[in-house]
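Thread: Newbie trying to understand structure tokens

Hi all, I'm a second-year student working on a class project, and my supervisor (Dr. K.) asked me to get a predicted structure for one chain before our next meeting. I've only ever worked with sequences, so writing a 3D structure as a token string is new to me. If someone could post the tokens and maybe explain what I'm looking at, I'd be very grateful. Here's the chain:
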Amino acid sequence: MQTTVSPKQENKQPKSFWTKPWFVVVLLVVLLGGGFIAFRVLASMNQSPTSLNDKTQLVESKSLDIKIKASGSVVPIETVNLSPKQAGKLVELLVEQGARVNQGQVIARMDNANLIPQLYQAQASAAASEANLAKLRNGNRPEDIAAAQARVESARGRVESARSRLALTNMKTSRFRGLQTEGAISSDRFDEVLTDDRSAQADLLTAQANLAEATRLLEETRNGSRVEDIAQAEAQLAQAIAGIRVIEVQIEDTIIRAPFAGIITQKYANAGAFVTPTTTASATNSSTSTSIVAIANGLEIIAKVPEVDISQIKIGQEVEIIADAFPSEVFKGKVRLIAPEAIIEQNVTSFQVRVTLETGKDKLQSGMNTDLRFIGQRINSALVVPTVAIVTQEGQTGLLIADEKGKSKFQPVTIGTTVDNQTQILSGAKVGDRVFVKLPETKTTP
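---
Reply by user tm_fold:
Sure, no problem. This is what the structure looks like when written as tokens:
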């Protein structure tokens, strides 16, 4: 018998849970949540060691070369601004900027037209002094003696003539005195006779003096020149020669020469300019408006080393040099000089240290900025960690050290020297400790 199911009976059958939307949504949430948790657990198990290695590094024992850092600049070993000793007109300039010159090479010439006539005059004066000295040294010729003798005889004749005249005037004076007493002549006439007598006496005295002088000169002519006269003539000649030398030096000073071999770094004047001497002829920066040119020789580094590091700098110490213009190259040098006196700039005390270049002379140029690393003593078996691993907690310096579970623990340490990106650990850590170089995600254990 066939059973017929009515529509009313079909509606009374139980419905499945799969047909309910809310049940499907809940089931999907449960399944997805469980899968995500399982994935996180597996990922944590697989990536935990790798993640720890990325964030940590081991404490190592290695040799550490101490390096003292400082800044510096490239400067010439020798530099000088050339200027004339006396103000004047520059008539000739023989070099250009960048030219290489040798020691003693003529660089420029100043006007010396006013000195040439002075030189000729001094030379003529010296020639006259030399001739006079030769005459005194050679003595008098027979002709000179004969001339002196003739002058004596002439003087003697004038004396005799003066005596004869005086005798006549004496007799006339005596005779006219009697006539004047008798009143035969006037007083004026007697005064004329008396004046004539006195004139004759004066002429006799003059003639006698001339005779004495002529006689003395005759004796000197016969005996030759005196030692005093020769000495005086020698002094006059020496003075004349010195005058020549003074003018020659002045002329030589108008020729500007290179004091040493080097390069013309600056040119300050051209031919025709009026140039004056300068008191700053030698300067570090080689710049002055009164100079003709600036010349420099060689290159070295002047570094400014902080006061706290100067005790570690020694003469001959090796230096690594990095110029801003060549950041990828390391040049070599050695300490040549340590300044005995500190300089203070903006309340910072430092010492100038001069470094001789061993490499890079063909690349570095004056004025370039450089960073220097002075190579100090080597520390053997030093415990080192990356500098970024050093942290501070509650005022203490230390390291974040990973324990067996990978959690970080703060460990106070004593640090030493820092070289490049590594820092020496004096106490508080040991070789093999794993220190965090990146901040850990887990909470740090104190």
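A couple of things are worth pointing out once you decode it. Residues 67-74+298-378 form a domain with the Elongation Factor Tu (Ef-tu); domain 3 fold (CATH 2.40.30.170). The radius of gyration is 57 Å. Feel free to ask follow-ups in this thread.
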